[in-house]
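Fold this sequence, please.
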Amino acid sequence: MATDRVGSQMSTGFFDRARSIAPEGYNRWLVPPCALAIHLSIGMAYGFSVFWLPLSRALGVAKPIECKGMTLIQAMTTTNCDWRVSDLVWTYSIFFVVLGAAAAIWGGWLEKVGPRKAGAVAAFCWAGGIAIGAVGVSWHQLWLVWLGTGLIGGIGLGLGYISPVSTLIKWFPDRRGLATGMAIMGFGGGAMIGSPLADQLIKHFANAQGVGVWPTFLVLAAIYFVAMMSGALGYRVPRDGWKPAGWTPPVASATASGGSSNGYVHLDDAHKTAQFWMIWAVLLLNVSASIGIIGVASPMLQEVFAGRLIGQPSIAFGALDVTQKAAIAAIGAGFVGVISLFNIAGRFVWATSSDRLGRKPTYAIMTALGALLYGLVAPTLIGGSVGLFILTFCICASMYGGGFATVPAYLADTFGTKFVGAIHGRLLTAWSTAGVLGPLIVTTLRDHALAAKVPAAQVYPPIYFTLGGLLVLAFLINLMIRPVNPALLRYDEAGAVSQVTAHSEATDDVSHGAAASTSSAVLIAWVLVLIPIAWGVWQTAAKASVLLR
């Protein structure tokens, strides 16, 4: 027996799940900062647009070296022509398609090996992908940028996004919405920190020979690797059977949104249920309704209100001179900043509120309110109050973020917590689909209207009506969600005993975790993640302050 125990310990690797099981007395509030360290890093994917304009003149430096008639295939390998912004934006598309695919493919693996190993792999992929992208920029090979930053980095995005979900839900069974809201808020805030930091680094490294992007990539890769590895190494998972002090699990019964408070649906069965696909559809429609409009937020505000934004209500958008367009462009950028803040805040506020309201009612409120704002309020504000128009879309942005942050808890309520990370990974294919569908709807309707010579201010009402219709459909589907068939529920009473035994045999080396669980350790961990968040908020607020002038 002793020999077997020693052999078991020797075969347990440092990154194995068994070595990350928390010791007695571990403070669960150390886990959210670890999740935020990872999500704040990968959230920079939202901010990569800061690189497009500098990269579009990577060869010419002062101005782009244009090659007329260059195809996308030619752009992938050219060393003589600067890339177009339209070529570079494909990196953004690859990010989110691969994110959803990676989360779906490796979600089950994550549940098996634990968040520490998955977080470490995410760090190597995300930071390593950006570093490979730096080589691609240095060699001026677009295919290498796509391979490194887009594909490999996208895998890091997928694993990094879902790695904390099941862990936090298991640590906070009494506050599932709060737990997921804290982490996914970080993903929304990553660009808020990364974009201004990247902008400052680009300016620092830029010179007459280069635009400063590839060294910026390398610096960011180093920063993100350290942050993500720190988060991954800090992860701990609770022993089976653990519960918060003073919390009594509800009796085994079907919850309001489905599933059971004590049982779980196996990963192999979850995607075969109607409930999975209904939640998938609700997320798809909720994200599609906002992601496209957020992408055109700045030009939308400028085209709808034009001269009114600078106190010249009689001047239409097409009649603005260069100076006036520059002035309203700054206001448009401020609008994007405010939307970003509401997107981030909504992830925390809506997810936390769902702990009291319930997940199904929360989605009902978000989709119904969104349909009202898009379908009825926004069209009437064309030519009306600029302030109310901005507020309307800020509320919509908060519900866009809130949908992301609330859905992991919705899944845990419906299918139980055991496989929630893997189930969430599969559900994120709805996000990948929405990333194509939402912008396609908005840009198609917008381009059609502009081609038909519709006045700029009147281009958007048909778009608002369409998006409102998507949310009405989401509202109806959400109402149809019922508890899963009790026959699908499983219970692991014996499994809990065996895992606790494995903990006692294989995790003596994490006894130092008890010392790290002091209140000072919690304080330090939170300060380390809150400082960059505060800096990002300050930077964004400074840009958004133009709206108050």
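The chain has two domains: 25-239+518-543, 253-495. The beta strands are 264-265, 489-490.
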